Structures
1.
Amino acid sequence: CSGFPLSIFFIVINEFCERFSYYGMRAVLVLYFKYFLHWDDNLATAIYHTFVALCYLTPLLGAIIADSWLGKFKTIVSLSIVYTIGQAVLSVGSINDLSDHNRDGSPDNVPLHIALSMIGLILIALGTGGIKPCVSAFGGDQFEDDQEEQRSTFFSLFYLSINAGSLISTIVTPNLRATECGIHTKQRCYPLAFGVPAILMAVALIVFVAGSRMYKKVKPQGNIMLQVCKCIGFAIKNRFRHRSKEFPKREHWLDWASEKYDKRLIVQTKMVLKVLFLYIPLPMFWALFDQQGSRWTLQATAMNGDFYFEKYLIFFSSYVHLQQIVNPILIVIMVPVVDSFIYPLIKKCKINFTPLKKMTVGMFLASMAFVAAALLQVQIDKTTPVFPAAGQTQIRLMNLGSVPATVQFQPQLQSVDVAPKEATDYMIFKTSQLQSLNITSRLLNKTQSLEGLLEGKRYTFAFQEFGKDIVSNLMFDNVTSKPEEGKNLIRFINSYDSTVNITLDGKAIALLPPFNASNYTTIPGGNRQYTINSTTPLSSCTVSSKKFGFGSAYTISINDCAQGTLNITYFEDIPPSSVHMAWQIPQYFLLTCGEVVFSVTGLEFSYSQAPSNMKSVLQAGWLLTVAVGNIIVLIVAGASKLSKQWAEYVLFAALLFVVCIIFAIMATFYTYVDPNEVEAQFDEQEKKDKKDQGDREKEAEADSKM
């Protein structure tokens, strides 16, 4: 079809479905750890990167199986079955009702869910990692030796299918997660979010098997990995035995294996080791790249996700996931643009833009992406509220009355003037020093004891002049961080002179006696307005709320009712996130540009420089760099002990920049080879040797007859 083998279309469709399955599951994985299994940010991030690392460690196993025993086709089919089972187990493990026997909305047997989830993830890692080096190499096998241009286009098309699957799944699965499902109690629908990827993996398996008769299947050529390892081991051992100066040096240290192994294997091993040596710096790129799904996702939760086009184009259940689709969208756009315009333009300028130069540029762009992320994090930190540390207590003063007041913290700590219908910022005190506070309003005075306040907590002291007295309420603000997932918290305090029944959009919130406060109620983030209703025995009043934004907390004072309209006052406990998520787009753009020139090129480079019987092994080596990169994240993040997230971003950017320079130097010493040409020379030599051997045997036979 247009010069391409028809079989590759089955492979591309299979890859699309498999990547939909993988990235769809991964898009909600960190949130599943955090909100379903109730792990903290650091543990969720650590397990996430451990899983990703495992997904990229197992390609080595898959490559050995494919090249040594089963062949690529059977390996892909076998491990795809394991993959599908793993997705199904993970989906079952996320069913809340599986152990929610008391029907309170929380799993009663959390270890059961953790065990099922971990089993599922291990099977997924084995499946997706095992088939990863085989699928791309199997696609490359479908082309003839003279179809280099078509093969190059295939790798771009193959990478495009990966990101198309990623793009669609990253839109679909978060929305599936946002729906509520359950038998006894309605929860975030993780079973559906994980179940649909399981179905897509089954579809991928069926599509791949359907094209079986069209495939060009290269038979496995023995345990080549074992042969290579033995060849390297023998060369090192033999060189050590002959380390004396009396033995002449050889051109390459692997030539010391020539006493036991044939020259073809030695040359092929040299080719593989040359490429693997170049792979040493590459994990640092992936250490940065894969933080899109962890650190950058958590960064987005502290930002303003107010995208006005959501209601016009598509419904996004979680504004955090809106950012996750930026990378695949940019990939789908950038791959054809770079392939069809940028590279040809560079070629016309007569610039020798070799694969290794492309990869160097990709690493530099990724480094700059993390510089952009660090600059953005600095701005986010400026808007993040400060919460009390150990040994500290925060107190805020709230004057609900119509006259000013002065508050004196005892013993002579601080004096604060508070205007009517105003609140101060949170003030930090050493808990051990707080004894009491004294309120003075006109001619009225009141003293409030502050003994027994908890360390590391926030309190709001609300007061109001009421007749000939000052009424007050010391409220415990049970909030020590910004609300999760961009949600908002609101509570009500009744400064009216009678008991009020408060509802929010018809939903009962609290029945509040005078000067009592409700607990915080969680509402979704966004620009939605709510109808607040206050009912007393004598009246009923309503008012439309303000737009609360994302990640805010408010105390709403119920003041009075006039002609059916409720009079309220807003007090900002935690300000909404003010840094817009659109500011993440530059870092995504830089990282995506880096990925296009680094990853696509790396796939093609790995295949083009590999001997025919070691292509899956070299592909696995390429994917192994991703695993090491995720391990680097765990090591660096754990060892750096940096308290500021922006500093960690700068650290990663600096490390990759240094590695980029090292890789550029290494690349200048690399000599490109054509494995097919080298192997053709060996084939020709073997034919000549066989012919010479035959001629000698004939001559010997003729001589014997004489």
2.
Amino acid sequence: EYDSPKYIRIQSATYGSLKCFLYITVALSICCIVIIYRLYEVTDEVNSSVRTSVKGVAYANTRIWDTAEYTIPMQAMNSFFVITNMIMTENQLQQECPEYPFAKAICSSDKSCEKGSVDIHSNGIQTGRCVNYNATVKTCEVTAWCPVESMGNPPEPAVLRSSEDFTVLIKNNILFPKFNYTVRNMPPNLNTSCTYNKKTNPLCPIFRLGDILHEAKENFSEMAVKGGIIAFEINWDCNLDSWFYDCSPKYGFRRLDDKKIKPGFHFRYARYYKRSNGEEQRTLFKVYGIRFDVLVFGTGRKFDGIELLKNIGSMISYFGLVASAIEIAICVHNCSICGQSPFYKIYNRKKYDTVLNPRQVMYVSYVDEPHITLIKKPLETSLQHTQGSSVESHPVKFCDADSYCTSEPDMNHDNEEHELRQPLGQGASSPGCQKWCCCGKCQPAQKYHEQLCCRRKKGQCITTSEGFQQLVLSSHTLKKALLYKDPFLDLTSGDINNQLRHLAYKQYIHWRFGSFDLEDRAVIPSCCRWKIRDTYPKADNNYTGFE
């Protein structure tokens, strides 16, 4: 079996135009999302390796500085460091000497110095003596590498400010594992004398340090004094489709350390020597410089039909928002006119089918009303006078197995019709007009649910109509319907009247209610029920039930 949802079609230019507009809007939105976010491609993250080579020579402090001196290997991955400034303390020996004068090291007597104490800012261990640091200041004596390092500010301008003209070669190899594709940032025909320029030479892997800081919007001379950290970004955004191939690096630069809170980057290292007497001596360097962190990231992309179908399929559900939007528009319009819209009432009745407990409702059909009436139990007055709600009827063509009819003339059939049109016998005529009867042919009844007439207003009884005679009472029609079901039925049996009577009840319900769905709770009026019983009586005249 296949179940399909039921739709309500609204004939409205307004809502029809709104639907078209919303469908077009959703379709265009899906197209834009697919194109902008490239949902038609499968992607892979980049794996990379980086090698650097710094070149340049500088003259400062009466000495030559080459690559081996101003570049120091970093422990961090994909980083390199260039010295730009320094504080050098030469000829240090392990002995006693005055501490550098900071707040906790300044003293006035030996009592201010505690032997063996160490401060986190101190250069050594206190001996317990207070000695002259210079002509005006006294500090605690320490056992340390003497003379101790100066804690003053670094030289300005920077010692190696000429390193601005140094160059660095960046070698970057990348791999997209999903596509098994490898590429590097060095062109096959690389001109080793080129220098990177964002506009004129954007693919050259050789960079001037001054240009790097300029692209990062920093002043090299200022930053060289205390140093800093620069991010050297390499972005690989690769389209690996053969018809739109594009895979080249894009370089970017920015400063990572905070310029306002403790800016700069520095560390210390020492060079050790042996004196002729075997005593160890060292030169301490507190170096400032720029650390360059090479950050490689990127994405490789390729068209994939399955990925496209998967993403479009997931977004087709957006079309369901159109129906929701129109539902909201209909509700808002109904609320704006205080719920008095006749269109909304019809729409609501068509859209929703209320399912009630069949034991708590009854269905009634009056010959002078075009609809079926639903009445809920319990009854407080006669069924005829109880107010109910209208429900849609669904008439069906009255030519089926139970209403088999023939167009051929039949003398016996005509005689039967003549007999059916005769006045009711004493058993079927009402001895007095009931208050709830409008046709004058209903029988007295004590129970409320049996007090029902075929009409709502005064008028002719339905039992006198041609339709009732032909469709409900005609034994010719009923017998043929029985034979249609059971070709070998004995029409002369003693039980034939019971079968004809029950079939007549069904014929009436099918005729007046238009659907067998209501058969269980459809109520047959008193006049029709007694007319059928009078025509096809029971042998003992003992009838049960009324529906």
3.
Amino acid sequence: LGIYGFPFLLRHITPEKFYVEACDDGADDVLIIDRVSTEVTLSVKKDIPPSAVTRPIFGILGTIHLVAGNYLIVITKKTKIGEFFNHVIWKATDFDVLSYKKTMLHLTDIQLQDNKTFLAMINHVLNVDGFYFSTTYDLTHTLQRLSNTSPEFQEMSLLERADQRFVWNGHLLRELSAQPEVHRFALPVLHGFITMHSCSINGKYFDWILISRRSCFRAGVRYYVRGIDSEGHAANFVETEQIVHYSGSRASFVQASGRTRGSIPLFWSQRPNLKYKPLPLINKVANHMDGFQRHFDSQVIIYGKQVIINLVNQKGSEKPLEQAFATMVSSLASGMIRYIAFDFHKECKNMRWDRLSILMDQVAEMQDELSYFLVDSAGMVVASQEGVFRSNCMDCLDRTNVIQSLLARRSLQAQLQRLGVLHVGQKLEEQHDFEKIYKNAWADNANACAKQYAGTGALKTDFTRQGRTQLGLLMDGWNSLIRYYKNNFSDGFRQDSIDLFLGNYSVDELESHSPLSVARDLKFLALPIIMVVAFSMCIICLLMAGDTWTETLAYVLFWGVASIGTFFIILYNGKDFVDAPRLVQKEKMD
């Protein structure tokens, strides 16, 4: 099974220590964590006290420091996703958060409440679906990146060799990372989406795999994390890899069929303010070229040539962002970067989804030039991917996923023909059994990414599954309503949870003023109550009409004006009524 091959671990607890025991054959190592000194050491099984309480676990996610002290986070349940080149891939489905402290008597009432809130934040992130791991395979790298590594790299532990962009528990593992001798107990965990299917076309069986890797750099929720930061990290950056394994040969098309998705790489924001679609604001004083160049320098180094597909509207509130993006690409004047603007909503209005073929025809030659990665059954590299498409809309969710699934299909068509699975002249769309698997997997991928970022399933997934439908339009309306509520009234807590989990904010129990104790303005509570009371009185006056309609009308007008007036006051001061993050300073977010 190899250095990471333990099928599961045993967690032993005493009042003084945690003991984590590997259960693979012949293993004698035991990880000991001192609950008082927090010291981490290696020992052997005979040192585990017989009195220790024993529970099976499936991995250590890491440790985190909160107001009460340190906590150990472990994986307690897992689901098998499938096998990947004889490596088992798991989804973590449940966790335990274990306190080092045996009592909370050392905390004040305020500290107890803060610690409870921080624990709720950690549990909120853990309850978001999409944590994946393997004890024997590096999920953070693409096939092409892994093929270009040295023998020394292959000998490294999974934690040492992992692409840190996609290790979501990197901050939680920082203490274990500092001690190479305990790396076998430190499990890098991916956040995103993985699906694996055994498929058959023309009686030829192959494995088809889709992996979306969500970056932990500039991670967050929809409206509170936009654009890029000073280091060039784009918000909601997701690398998706489509893999085919047939008769020993492996083909890969990276970043969701050869592209990444990520926010428009400028300094801009779009803070919620109770409006359905807040106005995006471009920072007028920031050095956009510096962050923009950092972003694409990194992209080119990692992926090669860049073909940007910008799907935002070319009119209305999105127009300035499209123009600024195009201007920055032109100013950069790099031969490695091409820019394509495609107004998705304009081109496909009135459900004219057939017009997406305009974009597909436009990029066909570029896609052939970028190619894909292919290694034959003898391990020889037959083809390499020379670059990627970088797709974006405003959220990099709904429009982006539709385009990604179309480009992915075109790549897969070429790969399966080259591998001999598809006959000459056969179309992938005509393979109905596989097409159903393919469409549903891409729609599931869209939903997973959307729930992690926007809090709801993706829009337009009916097009991905079976073509645009009226029911799909209704579901989009429902999801949009849920997004509106979450974006305005719960995303502050969600953003704080992510920042705490990823280490963007560290708890200091000695802080004189807790960021969680920020007092709300009185109007935050008073005005909504006044509006509800006024509206209720208006309805009561209508239901309990007085002796004359003149008297009733006067009361209705009074309370109606009061409720409508209060509503507009709230709307005007919308930013004061939304649930805003409290842990990370505003300038860090923008």
4.
Amino acid sequence: QLHSDQDKGDGSLKYILSGDGAGTLFIIDEKTGDIHATRRIDREEKAFYTLRAQAINRRTLRPVEPESEFVIKIHDINDNEPTFPEEVYTASVPEMSVVGTSVVQVTATDADDPSYGNSARVIYSILQGQPYFSVEPETGIIRTALPNMNRENREQYQVVIQAKDMGGQMGGLSGTTTVNITLTDVNDNPPRFPQSTIHLRIPESSPVGTAIGSVKATDADTGQNAEVEYRIIDGDGTDMFDIVTQKDTQEGIITVRKPLDYETRRLYTLKVEAENTHVDPRFYYLGPFKDTTIVKISVEDVDEAPVFSRSSYLFEVHEDIELGTIIGTVMARDPDSASSPIRFSLDRHTDLDRIFNIHSGNGSIYTSKPLDREISQWHNLSVIAAEINNPKDTARVPVYVRILDVNDNAPQFAVFYDTFVCENARAGQLIQTISAVDKDDPLGGQKFFFSLAAVNPNFTVQDNEDNTARILTRRNGFSRHEISTYLLPVVISDNDYPIQSSTGTLTIRVCACDSRGNMQSCNAEALLLPAGLSTGALVAILLCIIILLVIVVLFGALKRQRKKEPLILSKEDIRDNIVSYNDEGGGEEDTQAFDIGTLRNPAAIEDKKLRRDIMPETLFVPRRTPSAPDNTDVRDFINQRLKEHDTDPSAPPYDSLATYAYEGNDSIAESLSSLESGTTEGDQNYDYLREWGPRFNKLAEMYGGGESDKDTS
């Protein structure tokens, strides 16, 4: 209430009010000065208001006193309950956690004045979630309250937390929130086989790699804590079967390792072990984290009639299976009480090449064309199941067929190699490094072996054991005038089963190189005209060539006019032709005088020369004789050539003499040279020459006669 000292109570004064909320929230009685609130005031909206009041003369409207200012302060009452920023919280904590493990902290706020009483003092309590969890009253931290909480028993918990003001006393206001707590998994459960003995059956005609069936150990954990590795640890069929862990389904797929024979053996027993791959050391005391089961496999013919019931199927099959082999079976059943029979078919839009087919009665999918992983590794099929009584009632299921690789491609050269060898190359010199490629993709990676198809006197191959090999020379020096190109067959083999190999041929050119081994020319030396010859020089060369051609033509015409005349005129006219050469040879070190390789390599002879004792009337095409192998003795070679001359129909019936200047292999009697005999003391005894046969009789008489003459003298 406002009151002026000038107010005598006669109603001559009038009170007016201005400032925050004047006229709306606050009104004043202009006669008495009483101030009233027009509605309920909320401190949380505004804690105080500043107003100004003044008394004026009602008639003159002039102030009778100066304007005065005053503040109206709103005292707080507990009219706001604590509130949480989130209605629902989500949190997680590992299972098997110790008591007191922190889960999450929740915080509530109170709009009341914290400096006035306990209106804003909040205390937390748990309304739902005991005895599993607890909450700290002052901080709102939620902690585990029970030890060894097992996710496999219960995974989800709902906890209700209450926040109450007034320090939690009676009459305080409260608010609640919900916390959904999930127990996360740890590896505290070992894998367990649901059965101690598992029976499987397989036809004896199943090829190697066929999947017989699967075993699966259940693990109550999830994620990587439930990952299991399968292996065969014992049994009488360890060499006949393999087991592969299927990562996506955590199953052990048992496959055929060797061909089966029903008449030989009908039953195999395997001991299969399943073990966790990620073991937590904190829970070793709960172990061991592995389990075993016995798998009995019966070898026999079994006709299955399966139906599909899963959302999708995955089949794996080797690419070398025979046509008509069943790769898998989809199963379907009629949920109706009538249990109508099911008819299966393939959606041909998903198998345009008609590689697969399906048995309409039992859902067996089999191959109708050969498989090739190198062409297509995956086939995505769609199987349609329809009731026979109601074909319109159909269902579809995707079937994924994965083609497994087998070694059916031979390795080949990775690229085409342009190989050359220098004429001045030395033995053991590297001339080429080769590598190979293979279309197959074995699990263990590619491994190739290199070797020569046959022993080669000029080159050899050295395997680097890293899928490459080196081509090395085996001798010093090559001549492109003798042989300009060598063909070297190289055998390349892989390491998979079954082993595949191929033979690639390297073409090695003989080239002229500089001192550093850089190639300069690979062609046999030919007369090349310099690029800068003048026109006059070209005309002179052309005239020389024309003159030579004219001389050759004239010489040929003269020879045609000459009468054919044999070299031997009659049987009585037998004479020896002596040709003298006054050239001194280079001795035994003169390897350029005669190339004995011509005798040992008949293929090097360009063409068979015609007889020169007469001029033949008709030119016969020379016959190419088969080449003699490198180890053929020269005596056999000479006998073969003699036989060919005797049976040659193109030669006239005249005797001819073919001389081969080759002394042959080392003599068992060593050297007969008089040069060497001079180094020995005393006389030589040549009686042993008579024991060598009739070919040495003349020689024995010459040497034996000399000794007799000497004795006589």
